[in-house]
Structure formats: structure tokens, C-alpha cells
Amino acid sequence: MTGNENADANLKVSINGTLFDKADAKISVFDHGLLYGDGVFEGMRSYAGRVFRLERHLQRLYESAKAIRLEIPISPARMADDVQTTLQANAIRDGYIRLVVTRGAGTLGLDPNRTSHPQVIIIAGKIELYPERLYREGMEIVTVSTIRNHPAALSPRIKSLNYLNNIMAKLEGLQAGCSEALMLNHIGEIAECTGDNIFLVHRGKLSTPPVEAGILEGITREVVMELAQEAGSVCLQRPLTKHDVYIADECFLTGSAAEVIPVVKVDGRPIGTGKPGPITIDLMRRFHECTQRAH
Ligand code: PMP
Hints:
The protein contains 9 helices and 15 strands. The protein is α+β, with helices and mostly antiparallel strands. The longest helix has 15 residues, at 278-292. The two termini are 38 Å apart. Residues 1-5 have low confidence and may be disordered. It binds 4'-deoxy-4'-aminopyridoxal-5'-phosphate (PMP).
């Protein structure tokens, strides 16, 4: 057993407000979260013991739940308290928090009405970032053939437990030797990566696909747009195509886990100079500063 696994064994997981040892943190095999991916989740970061943009994450969680008519049995304020309790129980200051709300245990049929109580799970752990080298040198991604869910079928704005669309794309990316994969939408526009939003810089102008392109409204994406504004530049939300990616001077991804990470190669083509660009580097610095401020 490695040191890491040892530390893991002491992990405390919150289920419905009670803390359990990792080995005892269990829910029913009849839970529709497991049987059908019926539930919602959030992935958040804590910096110096404070959860970054907690309110915004809770808002998205409750809205995702509302969209699938899942009533979360506790208030956002109570959820925020339980998140803090879980962080403290694990003595985590800089970490990653996963919030999961499942539909609850039910019959083998789909009917969400024939389930009991939604289960609220909070896991606080250490963060697994991309290797440090990729933040310095930039990462390589590929466009994959799995298209992002059609928003009229299942809105990518819902952060649901059913992530197979993204997993299919991730498999393609990994097959091509890339740790992130770029997904297009049903009309061939750039949507987002499997767990990150995408930004481009072209002739000094920052742009990112709009929500209507069929993406998750990333909270890191929002923060980066605010930071760009603070820096005196506007970020355009506009439909983007592979052409825009290939002619971009800079490209980067955003996500709670990834933060801001430069992309220097897409589909085997170097982006810009093939090195992280100045606007990306500036936004990475601003983002880091922002996480260290009160938020
Ligand atoms: N898109 C998808 C599909 C994601 O899963 C995530 C990660 N939650 C993001 C974008 C980035 O969102 P955020 O900045 O809120 O973590």
C-alpha cells in the first residue's frame, strides 16, 4: 500500500449529513443514480480552506436538479454547511470537492416517482491536476468524432450523473494519446472539451463558444471572462469552428479541476507559436491570484 492509499483510508465521506469512513460510505445498488445515471453533481475547488465560488456551484447544482425534477432534500445553506464540515473532517485546505445527489433507491423500472429519498453525497479529496509540465509547456488535444449531446435531446447545461457522451469522447482522445478531447456540436461548431470549456485568442481578441453551442456553463469560464474584462479586454461569446481553432494565436481550457491550462497543439497542428501565449499566461496568473483572494 502506498502512502496515498493509507491517507485515503482515513477519508470521511458525507452521506445525507452523516460522516462515514471511506469503507463504510455506501448507497443502495437500487439507487437510480447507479441504475440510470439519474442524478446531478458538482465538482468544486477549495483554496486555503474556502470553497471557490461555492454559491455559484450550488446554484448550478440546484438548477440541474430542477431541470430533471429532482428535489434536493436540503437547502443550499445546509448543503454549504455540510461541505465545510466535510472539508474540516478531512483537514483539507486545498482540495477538490465532489457533490453528488442521486435520485435514490427505487424499483428496476425508470419511473423516478418510484424511488425513495435522494441521496446527498459529499466527497472531499486531494486534487489530481494535469502534470505541472503541461501548465508550463501547454497540452495537446484532438477533435473527436463523438458530437456533444444535442441540446434539444439532453441539455449539456444539466450537470447530470450521465456522462457517457463525454466519456465516449474521452476514450477517443485517449486513443489518440491526448488527455483532453475537443467535441463539436450537432452542426459542426466547437462546443467544449470532455470536462473543460475552451477559449481562443485571435489577433488579441478572446472568444469562447456561447451557451447556445450546447455546453456546460462552466464557472471557471465565467471567472475567466470577468478577469478578461478586468484586464481591459472583452471576451466574445460567438460560434466557433475548427477553422477558428486552426488559425488561433492562442488556445486554453478552463475547468474547476484544470483551472486555466494552455493548449499548444490541436489535431497535430501547432497553435500560434506552439508555446503558451501572453494572453493565456496573463489570465493564468490572474486566475491564480483570484483563487487566493477572498471569494
Ligand atoms: N464542461 C464540462 C462538460 C465539464 O464537465 C466541466 C467541469 N465541470 C466544465 C466544462 C468546466 O466547468 P467548471 O469550470 O464549472 O468546472
